[in-house]
Design brief:
Blueprint lengths: L18 H14 L7 H5 L5 H12 L10 H14 L3 H6 L6 H37 L8 H8 L8 H9 L2 H6 L9 H14 L1 E2 L4 E2 L33 H12 L8
Antiparallel strand pairs: 1-2
The structure holds a DNA duplex (21 and 21 nucleotides).
GO molecular function: DNA binding
Subcellular location: Nucleus
GO cellular component, one term: nucleus
DNA sequence: AAGTGATACAACCGCTTCCTG
DNA sequence: GCAGGAAGCGGTTGTATCACT
């Protein structure tokens, strides 16, 4: 496939948009719609490439864009959606009306990552304490490493979430859609239950991490049965780098029911 | 006041996906 | 089914601004 020459080579302008250019783009799109982005700059009389026009419109000039700081609620939603979707910024943006993928991506890299780091370090401190309690209560406990138990209780909140990015390569959105049992819709109750799980309902014994079966049935695609048998057991020996940790994180939150196999 | 590092965010790059002939 | 063009997307970069020394 032959790539189109970049803006500079075509003698087109790059860099920040002027007020005048914005006005031209807005008035053109208001009159004619954007139609073909590639043809638009020529038709509108802009010395920009179509890609640049599209980006400017989508990320900045669209009338339905919500400007200004993100509210706490929005930030929390982004964090939660990121746990579910990884770095699929456009998918996250689709759940946040008025916010663009670019804006969300920026806010993630500048604010939320740090915020989350702070939170996760606090959480891991808590877990170290609780693990010590568990060990004391049962000296014959099965070998559950700190990282394993941490990921069992919460989703990944590592420094750069690079592992999440990798996961999408293993299980793509179309794969999810094609699975026989659709993923449950996420609503507020999901998160509050997940929070409740994190706070109170996890009960760890020497051989299992069991969350009451009555809370919610474990839900996962049936074609994952070889890895997640219907008895809702999580194979702690499975290789978490093979992409299944993505499901692993979600299902623990969704299903609230995990039993560790005997080691 | 000047210099420097950190931060925020707009814009770009290049790859992937989708659509059409 | 294939090729080519357009749009979409995520990662990265550039730059303005702020905070601190």
């Amino acid at each position: 496939m032959v790539r189109a020459p970049c803006c500079e080579k075509m003698g087109l302008k790059r860099g920040p948009w002027s007020l005048e250019e914005d006005q031209i783009l807005i008035s053109y799109i208001q009159k004619h719609g954007h139609g073909n982005w590639r043809a638009l700059p020529k038709l509108a009389g802009l010395l920009r490439c179509g890609k640049s026009c599209r980006l400017r419109w989508i990320n900045y000039l669209r009338p339905d864009i919500k400007r200004g700081n993100f509210t706490n609620e929005e930030e929390e939603n982004i964090i939660k959606l990121h746990e579910m979707l990884g770095n699929r910024w456009s998918a996250i943006a689709a759940k946040l009306p008025g916010r663009t993928d670019n804006e969300i991506k920026n806010v993630w890299h500048t604010h939320l990552k740090k915020k989350l780091n702070k939170t996760s370090s606090e959480l891991s401190n808590k877990r170290v304490i609780s693990k010590q309690k568990i060990k004391r209560s049962d000296s014959n406990s099965s070998t559950i490493t700190e990282s394993e138990s941490a990921s069992a209780c919460t989703t990944s909140s590592s420094d750069d979430f690079s592992s999440v990015g990798k996961r999408k390569d293993v299980i793509k959105s179309e794969d999810i859609e094609s699975m026989e049992e659709p993923m449950p819709e996420i609503d507020e109750s999901f998160w509050s239950e997940a929070a409740a799980l994190d706070e109170t309902s996890t009960h760890m014994t020497s051989s299992s991490l069991t969350i009451s079966n009555e809370i919610l049935p474990l839900q996962y695609p049936s074609n994952c049965g070889d890895i997640f048998p219907q008895e809702s057991k999580v194979d702690y020996n499975s290789n978490l780098d093979d992409g299944m940790d993505f499901w692993y994180d979600i299902f623990i939150r969704t299903g609230d029911q995990i039993e560790l196999p005997e080691f």
